[in-house]
Amino acid sequence: MKRARSRIKEELFALGVVLVVLVAFPAGLFGYQAWRAASAGVKIVEIVARAPEQGGFSPDRLSLQVGEPVRLRLSSPDVVHGLTIPGLGVNVDEIYPGKVVEVDVTPDKPGRYAFACTRWCSVNHWRMRGVIEVTGGSSLVMATTEPPLFQQLGIDLDATPHEAQATPSAKPSTDAGAALNAKLPQDLTDPATRRTLTPAGAFDDLRTDPANAALSDADIWNLLAWAWMKDVSPTALARAETLYARDCAACHGPDGKGKGPAGLNLPGMQKMDPAMPPGPADFTDPAHMLAASDVLLQGKLLRGGMGTGMPEFGSLYTDEEQWTMIAYLRTFLFAK
Ligand code: HEC
Ligand SMILES: [Cu+2]
After folding, report:
1. What is the distance in A from the centroid of ligand 2 to the CA of 120?
2. Is there a smaller number of Cβ atoms within 10 Å at the N or the C end of the chain?
3. CB 304: neighbour CB atoms within 10 A?
4. Burial of residue 296 (number of CB atoms within 10 Å: 0-12, 13-18, 19+)
5. Are 51 and 124 in contact (CB under 8 A)?
6. Does the Cβ of 326 fall within 6 Å of ligand 1?
7. Ligand nearest to the CA of 129
8. Any idea which ligand is nearest the CA of 84?
9. Hey, where are the domains in the chain?
C-alpha cells in the first residue's frame, strides 16, 4: 500500500514535470515576450524570409509610423538569408533557418525605405526585395531628392552602345600615372566634370594636345587611370569591394567578366535587342567600358537593366556608395 502510494506520488511528480515543460514554460516564455514587448511599447512585426521562388519576404510591404518603436522578428523556414534596410541602418548578416533574429528600429523620418536580402539564397536572390513606407511626422523633413545626374544631363542610357576606337595595349596603372607628375587639365581634376567624360574621349583629347607630344600612348592611359582613381579613398573602395561581392558578383562574376552563375538565362535576356550584350556586362572589356562615362554607369546602376534582369541599386546605396562602386568597376581595367 505504502509502496503503491509512493508510486502514485512519483507519477504525479513526473506528470507535474511534464506539465511544466509542456505548458507553463512556453506560456511563461510567451508571456515574457509579450510582457517585454508591451513594457517597451514596442510594436512587433514578423517578417518571414523565404527563397524568392517560395515568395521572398512576407510581408514585402510594411507601413510604419515616424517615432513608433518597432521590433522586427526575422525568421527563415528554408536557407540562410540576410536583411539590409540601408535607410534605417538595419543590417542583419544571417537569418538562420529555425532561429529568430530580433532588431529594433524607430524610423525618424517619413519616406520609402527599400530592404533586400544580402545572401545569395538562390539564383533568384536578387529579386528578394521589399519596401517600408514610413508616414507621419512633419512632411517638411521629407527628403527632397534631386534627379540623378544622367537625367539632369539628358543622357539616354539605352542609346546604341558605342565602342572606344583606341584602347590601351596593357592594363593602365594608377601608380605609373601618378609617377609622371603631369599636370591634368581642369576637366579631369574636377570630379563633377570628369564623371561626364569617357576615358576614351579623354584619351583622344590628351593625345591630340601638342603639350603631350613627349608622352607615349601608354603614358596617357596611365595618367587617365590615375585621374579616375586618385580621389577614391582605399576605405571606400574596400567597402565597394564587399558590396560587389555581396550584390554583383553572382551575375557579373567575381572577376568582372560577366559570367556569374546567376547571370545565365536571366528572364528577358532572350527577348533583348540583339545589339545588347548577351548577358551581364563584362567590366574587363576595354572597348566597352572606356567608352562609358561614370554618369552613364551610375545611371544603369540606379535604374537597373530594364527587362534584362539587373535589379536597381539606387534605393539601396547611398550617393557615395554608388560613385565608389563605379570607381570599383574601373579597377577591373585600371591596375594599381
Ligand atoms: C541579376 C543579375 C545582375 C546583378 C545582380 C547585377 N547586374 Fe549589372 N547587369 C546585368 C545585366 C544582364 C546587364 C546588361 C544589360 C545592360 O547593360 O543593361 C548589366 C549591366 C550593368 C551595367 C551597365 C554596363 C554597361 O556597360 O552599360 C552596370 C554599370 C552594372 N550592370 C553594374 C552592376 C553592379 C555594380 C551590380 C551590383 C551592385 C550589378 N550590376 C548587379 C545583370 C546584373
Ligand atoms: Cu537572398
Report:
1. 5
2. N
3. 15
4. buried
5. yes
6. no
7. 2
8. 2
9. 43-141, 149-330
Neighbours of ion ligand 2 (CB under 5 A): 117, 119, 121, 125, 128
pLDDT digits (tens, 9 = 90+) for 202-240: 999 999 999 999 999 999 999 999 999 999 999 999 999
Among 127, 336, 328, 334, CA closest to 245: 328
For 87-120, the pLDDT digits (tens) are 999 999 999 999 999 999 999 999 999 999 999 9
Instruction: Out of 3.20.20.100, 3.20.20.370, 2.60.40.420, 3.90.550.10, select the CATH number for domain 43-141.
Output: 2.60.40.420
Structural contact between residues 127 and 121, judged by C-beta atoms closer than 8 angstroms: no
Cβ–Cβ < 8 Å for 150, 157 = yes
Which residue of 248, 265, 289 sits with most ligand 1 atoms within 8 Å of its CB, as the best mutation to test the pocket? 248
Distance CA 251, CA 45 (A): 32
- Nearest ligand for residue 290 CA: 1
Give me the half-sphere count of Cα atoms (radius 13 Å) on the Cβ side of residue 292.
29
Q: From 198, 251, 313, give the residue whose CB has the most ligand 1 atoms within 8 Å, as the site to mutate.
A: 251
- Cell digits for 314? 539606387
Residue with CA nearest ligand 1 atom 19 = 280
Distance separating alpha carbons of residues 159 and 162, to the nearest angstrom: 8
* 193/295 Cα distance (integer angstroms): 10
CA 228-329-215 angle, 5° bins: 35
281 CA to centre of ligand 1 in angstroms = 6
For cell 603614358, name the residue.
219
Q: Are 289 and 257 in contact (CB under 8 A)?
A: no
